[in-house]
Amino acid sequence: MPRPIVAHIRPDAVHHNLEIVREKAARSRVWAVVKANAYGHGIERIFPGLASADGIALLDLDEAVRVRELGWDKPVLLLEGVFEPADVALVERHRLTVAVHCDAQLDLLIAAKPRRPIDIQLKMNSGMNRLGFRPDAFRAAWERAASAPSIGKITLMTHFANADEGEIDWQLDRFDAATDGIPGERTLSNSAGVLWHPNAHRDWVRPGTILYGASPTGASRHIADVRLRAAMTLTSRIIGVQTLTPEETVGYGRKFTVDRKMRIGVVACGYADGYPRHAPTGTPIAVDGVRTRVVGRVSMDMLTVDLTPCPNAGIGSSVELWGDQVRVDDVAEAAGTIGYELMCALARRVPVEIVPPEAANARPAPLRTGSYGR
Ligand SMILES: *Cc1c(COP(=O)(O)O)cnc(C)c1O
User: Fold this and answer.
1) Of 154, 183, 216, at which residue does a domain stop?
2) The domain spanning residue 270 has which CATH number?
3) What is the pTM of this model?
4) Domain ends where: 155, 187, 216?
């Protein structure tokens, strides 16, 4: 019998979240961002949920080829463009759209002799200071691209540094000033832009994390009003119970001391499954649908929970590490990271089941409130 841990992946949740993106950015087309193997969900697994997207964006050529092999006929965007001349043949064969963020990439495409011009997204560094042409170099780059026979449609692109926590106008103003009068579609917004900056929706939006039901800020309270569904649910079971008396401690490092008689459940999930070792005592977790808390240090294959709010729980009880009952963002926040990282870090050893649409339509069981956690 395998360990009871399993990740359920719901393509229908991705479809549902994509519909929410459509409502929010009703006049824009949507690049569904599936980089990092669909944020750890598996491109093939969530693929059925992407049907209504207008394009798929990612950054590994290998992932782009997989998307084509799945039968995706609409645009595919390489968010970081090509890395070497040999990539151009695959770009051509699979009709990929490529970001162009620097002169070296532009040189490479201008020198290429594709049979059909390659569509590009010319990227401006409007303040993120990662990839892109600086605003004062952008027009010249566009002119070079526009006169190159090997380059087709040119879309103007930038990326926000702070759309989740603050202002974007300083970047928007730079972008608009530097692209004034340049023809072509615009694409600026990630998930945070979709949710909170309608003035930046423009022609195409590029949501990633909200398609999977996680918050761009890393805190679920910021998306409490958005009705997103978790595309990944990580569950396991209680495999051991200890009843402890005051002064006893739990786990490695003796990080948690019991202050009254307490039942502790041992869950088959640890950091080798992708659960963050930094999750401290108090990190939310659900046992039999009751919210409680992790106590003590997370070990490689196990972690321990306080069973006080769920006195009927015992060996075999179901545990949700994250999903619709406990948001991945809340686990991440407690551990000092963001949901993106936890989803991407789901370990290979965790068995994955794809939830078919009929099962996905059933609403998740309502969460009963325990005495711990938020
Ligand atoms: C990852 C990425 C996105 C999506 O970001 P989210 O915060 O996950 O919505 C959009 N655009 C670019 C260029 C990206 O690299």
Assistant:
1) 216
2) 2.40.37.10
3) 0.94
4) 216
How far is it, in rounded angstroms, from Cα 197 to Cα 199? 5
**Quick one: which of 291, 294, 247 has its CA closest to 267?**
294
Report CA(86)–ligand 1 centroid distance (Å): 26
Summarised one tens digit per residue, pLDDT across range 120-156 is 999 999 999 999 999 999 999 999 999 999 999 999 9
Catalytic positions? 35, 252
Other C-beta atoms within 10 Å of 71: how many? 7
Q: Same structural domain for residues 275 and 207?
A: no
- Residue 96: Cβ-neighbour burial (10 angstroms; 0-12, 13-18, 19+): buried
Q: Quick: pLDDT tens for 227-272.
A: 999 999 999 999 999 999 999 999 999 999 999 999 999 999 999 9
Cβ proximity of 367 and 286 under 8 Å? yes
Asked if the model's pLDDT at residue 82 lies above 60, the reply is yes
Ligand 1 in reach of 208 Cβ (< 6 A): yes
Q: Which of 261, 252, 310 is nearest to 281 (CA)?
A: 252
What does the pLDDT average to over 102-110?
97
